[in-house]
Specification:
The structure holds two protein chains of two kinds. Chain A is mostly beta strands. Chain A has strands at 4-7, 10-13, 19-25, 31-37, 44-50, 53-56, 64-67, 73-78, 87-94, 103-104, 108-112. The model of chain A has no long low-confidence stretch (mean pLDDT 95). Classes of the chains: A mainly beta, B mainly beta. The interface between A and B is medium-sized, with 26 and 27 residues.
Amino acid sequence: DAMVIQNPRYQVTQFGKPVTLSCSQTLNHNVMYWYQQKSSQAPKLLFHYYDKDFNNEADTPDNFQSRRPNTSFCFLDIRSPGLGDAAMYLCATSRDGDSYEQYFGPGTRLTVT
Amino acid sequence: ILNVEQSPQSLHVQEGDSTNFTCSFPSSNFYALHWYRWETAKSPEALFVMTLNGDEKKKGRISATLNTKEGYSYLYIKGSQPEDSATYLCARNTGGFKTIFGAGTRLFVKA
């Protein structure tokens, strides 16, 4: 049974057109993360939520926002996608930080035309 | 070393070969080292988490070691099988929620 679900798996959007990626979890974990992975590069943490507390990485562009309306769901909003935002976006959850393992969704591959 | 570095970037082996890859990371402010396996079109899944210098973990034919003083971890696969083909990611945690990933080693096992 899927524990971290991401929809859609593939998303095509136009340059400048807002897009939302979604993630849901059945693990009841406190922490949810969003990572961006560009081709052959390391996944890069954009932000995370601990419960309702939002934590933005210092180098995450303002163009990226996130919402967590409840424990199960978390959304990544890209307000004005540029060509450079084309990437794989991974959602992950964990019970806590430090040495707790993360559980990942399969990712959403975003294409910007 | 400023970031998490993995080598090699990719590796092609024959079925039955044993293989290993390296993850290098800054030795300062170390808290935990994670290994994940990511098969194509699937979700990355956790293999190991190690926190202590000298830790060794094993799961079936896969094992990992950790040296926090010199800042490296090795992942070993004994008798590689085609189903081991995947990208293997390591990630360093310095405490808290920030985990820094390497770019991965992509393993191809030919039958």
